[in-house]
């Protein structure tokens, strides 16, 4: 779940609903008999009614976009999990016996510490096991 995206979608949806609701009485006034008569005789009233109707349509679109963003934020996976899975495959696949010969002892230790951190994060080893194994590479 992407929390920021979810919150942004909720905010857009709320703003869209609020603007639509706020302008609903003005649109109703423009559509009444007196509003239609006023639009006929005054171009200012006609222009204001048209502007309010367009803003209300825009608020509907804003609400729909907010709903879509909210759904995406709720369903989408967080990028960090993808990053760690890619890091895991890179660390294990590219670290062959040939590449270990080209690395210095310090580079090997850093690589092994990275694997230990990853195994700790995945729950494969406990914190105590991590601390014990970490001492070997420092």
Radius of gyration: 30 Å
Largest sheet entry: none
Q: Domains counted in the coordinates: how many?
A: 2
Please give the oligomerization state of what you see: single chain
Query: What is the H/E order?
Result: HHHHHHH
Instruction: Tally the beta strands.
Output: 0
- What coarse outline follows from CA principal-axis ratios? rod-shaped
The percent of residues in helical segments reads over 70%
Gap from first CA to last CA: 37 Å
Q: What is the overall number of helices? A: 7
Portion of residues in beta strands equals: under 5%
Textual characterization of the structure:
The protein is mainly alpha-helical and 138 residues long. The protein has helices at 3-31, 33-41, 43-75, 79-93, 97-102, 105-121, 127-136. Helix 6 packs antiparallel against helix 7. The longest helix is centred in the middle third of the chain and has 33 residues, at 43-75. The radius of gyration is 30 Å and the shape is rod-shaped. The two termini are 37 Å apart. 4% of the residues are buried.
Write the layout of secondary structure elements.
Layout: H1 3-31, H2 33-41, H3 43-75, H4 79-93, H5 97-102, H6 105-121, H7 127-136
Helix pairs in contact: 1-3, 2-3, 4-6, 6-7
What's a concise summary of this model?
Helix content is 86%, strand content 0%. The chain has 7 helices and no strands. The longest helix has 33 residues, at 43-75.
